[in-house]
Amino acid sequence: MIAMPIRPLSPVLLIALLGACSSLSPESRMRTGLEQAGLSPRMSACMAERMADRLSLAQLRKLQSLGAFRKSHSEPMSVDRLLHDLRALGDTEIVAVTGKAALSCSF
Protein backbone atom coordinates (compact mmCIF):
# COMPACT_ATOMS: atom_id res chain seq x y z
CA MET A 1 0.00 0.00 0.00
CA ILE A 2 1.31 3.43 -0.94
CA ALA A 3 0.96 6.20 1.59
CA MET A 4 -0.27 9.45 0.11
CA PRO A 5 0.60 12.70 1.84
CA ILE A 6 -2.32 14.72 3.13
CA ARG A 7 -2.28 18.27 1.84
CA PRO A 8 -3.84 21.00 3.95
CA LEU A 9 -6.92 22.70 2.53
CA SER A 10 -6.62 26.26 1.35
CA PRO A 11 -8.30 28.77 3.67
CA VAL A 12 -10.79 29.76 0.96
CA LEU A 13 -11.83 26.14 0.38
CA LEU A 14 -12.06 25.50 4.11
CA ILE A 15 -14.33 28.53 4.61
CA ALA A 16 -16.52 27.45 1.69
CA LEU A 17 -16.86 23.93 3.12
CA LEU A 18 -17.71 25.21 6.58
CA GLY A 19 -20.28 27.60 5.14
CA ALA A 20 -21.92 24.80 3.16
CA CYS A 21 -22.06 22.56 6.21
CA SER A 22 -23.63 25.20 8.41
CA SER A 23 -26.29 26.10 5.86
CA LEU A 24 -27.40 22.48 5.53
CA SER A 25 -27.72 21.65 9.22
CA PRO A 26 -30.21 18.94 10.13
CA GLU A 27 -32.19 21.46 12.15
CA SER A 28 -32.57 23.93 9.28
CA ARG A 29 -33.47 21.16 6.84
CA MET A 30 -36.03 19.80 9.30
CA ARG A 31 -37.52 23.25 9.87
CA THR A 32 -37.91 23.71 6.11
CA GLY A 33 -39.41 20.23 5.74
CA LEU A 34 -41.95 20.84 8.49
CA GLU A 35 -42.95 24.14 6.88
CA GLN A 36 -43.28 22.40 3.51
CA ALA A 37 -45.44 19.80 5.20
CA GLY A 38 -47.79 22.61 6.18
CA LEU A 39 -46.90 23.57 9.76
CA SER A 40 -46.53 27.23 10.72
CA PRO A 41 -43.03 28.71 10.64
CA ARG A 42 -43.07 29.25 14.42
CA MET A 43 -44.12 25.68 15.16
CA SER A 44 -41.66 24.30 12.58
CA ALA A 45 -38.72 26.17 14.09
CA CYS A 46 -39.60 25.13 17.62
CA MET A 47 -40.09 21.47 16.74
CA ALA A 48 -36.99 21.27 14.55
CA GLU A 49 -34.84 22.55 17.40
CA ARG A 50 -36.09 19.77 19.67
CA MET A 51 -36.09 16.97 17.08
CA ALA A 52 -32.83 17.41 15.15
CA ASP A 53 -30.54 16.00 17.82
CA ARG A 54 -32.86 13.16 18.79
CA LEU A 55 -33.29 11.48 15.40
CA SER A 56 -30.73 9.57 13.33
CA LEU A 57 -29.79 10.53 9.79
CA ALA A 58 -31.85 7.61 8.47
CA GLN A 59 -34.88 8.86 10.38
CA LEU A 60 -34.35 12.41 9.10
CA ARG A 61 -34.32 11.06 5.55
CA LYS A 62 -37.63 9.30 6.18
CA LEU A 63 -39.11 12.60 7.28
CA GLN A 64 -38.14 14.22 3.99
CA SER A 65 -40.75 12.14 2.21
CA LEU A 66 -43.54 13.93 4.09
CA GLY A 67 -42.50 17.32 2.71
CA ALA A 68 -42.76 16.03 -0.85
CA PHE A 69 -46.18 14.52 -0.09
CA ARG A 70 -47.60 17.72 1.38
CA LYS A 71 -46.38 20.05 -1.40
CA SER A 72 -49.42 19.00 -3.40
CA HIS A 73 -51.78 20.16 -0.62
CA SER A 74 -52.22 23.87 -0.04
CA GLU A 75 -54.06 23.82 3.29
CA PRO A 76 -52.14 24.13 6.57
CA MET A 77 -51.37 20.88 8.35
CA SER A 78 -52.39 20.25 11.93
CA VAL A 79 -50.09 18.47 14.36
CA ASP A 80 -52.67 15.67 14.60
CA ARG A 81 -52.53 15.15 10.84
CA LEU A 82 -48.72 15.24 10.89
CA LEU A 83 -48.59 12.53 13.56
CA HIS A 84 -51.11 10.46 11.62
CA ASP A 85 -48.95 10.71 8.47
CA LEU A 86 -45.81 9.89 10.46
CA ARG A 87 -47.28 6.59 11.64
CA ALA A 88 -47.24 5.46 7.99
CA LEU A 89 -43.44 5.62 8.08
CA GLY A 90 -43.44 2.68 10.50
CA ASP A 91 -40.95 4.20 12.95
CA THR A 92 -42.35 4.59 16.45
CA GLU A 93 -39.36 6.65 17.61
CA ILE A 94 -40.06 9.32 14.96
CA VAL A 95 -43.69 9.50 16.12
CA ALA A 96 -42.66 9.73 19.79
CA VAL A 97 -40.00 12.40 19.25
CA THR A 98 -42.32 14.43 17.02
CA GLY A 99 -45.22 14.12 19.46
CA LYS A 100 -43.08 15.28 22.39
CA ALA A 101 -41.72 18.21 20.36
CA ALA A 102 -45.23 19.21 19.26
CA LEU A 103 -46.51 19.08 22.83
CA SER A 104 -43.59 21.16 24.12
CA CYS A 105 -43.98 23.74 21.37
CA SER A 106 -47.73 24.09 21.86
CA PHE A 107 -47.27 25.99 25.11
DSSP summary: helix tally: 6
Structural class: mainly alpha
Count of DSSP strands: 0
Shape designation: globular
Helix-strand string: HHHHHH
Radius of gyration: 18 Å
Number of domains: 1
Relative helix content = 55-70%
Which percent range describes the beta-strand content?
under 5%
Q: Enumerate the spans where pLDDT stays under 50 for 5 or more consecutive residues.
A: 6-22
End-to-end separation: 60 Å
The largest sheet is: none
Summarize model confidence as the mean pLDDT. Answer: 75
Describe the structure concisely for a colleague.
The chain is built from six helices and no strands. With 107 residues, the chain is mostly helical. This is Lipoprotein.
Q: In words, what does this structure look like?
A:
The radius of gyration is 18 Å and the shape is globular. The chain is 68% helix and 0% strand. Helix 2 (26-37) crosses helix 3 (41-51). The chain starts with 10 loop residues before the first helix and ends with a helix. The protein has one domain (26-105). The chain has 6 helices and no strands. By secondary structure, it is mostly helical. Residues 6-22 have low confidence and may be disordered.
